[in-house]
Amino acid sequence: MNSIVVFCGSAEGYDSSYRDTAYGLGSLLAGRNIRLIYGGAKVGLMGAIAEGALDKGGEVIGVIPHFLQTKEIAHEGITEMILVNTMHERKMKMHELCDAAIVLPGGFGTMEEMFEMLTWAQLGLHEKPIALLNINGYYDGLKVMVNNMVTEGFLNECYASMLLSSESSEELLDMLAQYQPPEVPQYITKQTT
């Protein structure tokens, strides 16, 4: 695994463990020679993970739309900043550059990025692993919701299994490395996109 995209908030949250864990994950990625792909900001958890990787000599690639350069305060000290025109182009570029995705705490934007990648996997467009770093049980409610989708017949259990989860960064990276995608029908092919 050469590159991991991390989806996370442009806020830090109220508990300092969110920032500390994001910084630690960035350091861990750099220590394992895994390139960090992220949203390009220098604030919030995005800034923390970038700093963690940079402080350990890691490669950090940011992807940010032109209109968010000032709103999200683009990080000027990363290895490479890729500017795009739209949010959709941002997600596509991050997806193209990564081998896997990790989701840290965040808000609507973080959820949207994660669910789009999960949906693409469900449709057979990719087989990249996607994992929650469940800091302080932040994603416990989401895990309950996913189980409810299965129980109520709106989500096949094999699709639910695509979303990995751990409270440990080290364990999560090991899970990503060992991930075997479920056998799912490919509804969409390159010819239809």
Notes on the structure:
The chain is built from seven helices and seven strands. With 193 residues, the chain is α/β, with parallel strands linked by helices. The two termini are 26 Å apart. Helix 1 packs parallel to helix 2. A seven-stranded parallel sheet has the order 4-3-2-1-5-6-7, with helices on both faces.
| Largest sheet descriptor | 7 strands, parallel
Q: Radius of gyration, Cα only, in angstroms?
A: 16 Å
Strand content: 15-25%
> Strand-and-helix sequence, N→C?
EHEHEEHEHEHHEH
Which segments are poorly predicted (pLDDT under 50) over 5 or more consecutive residues?
none
Mean pLDDT, rounded to whole units? Answer: 93
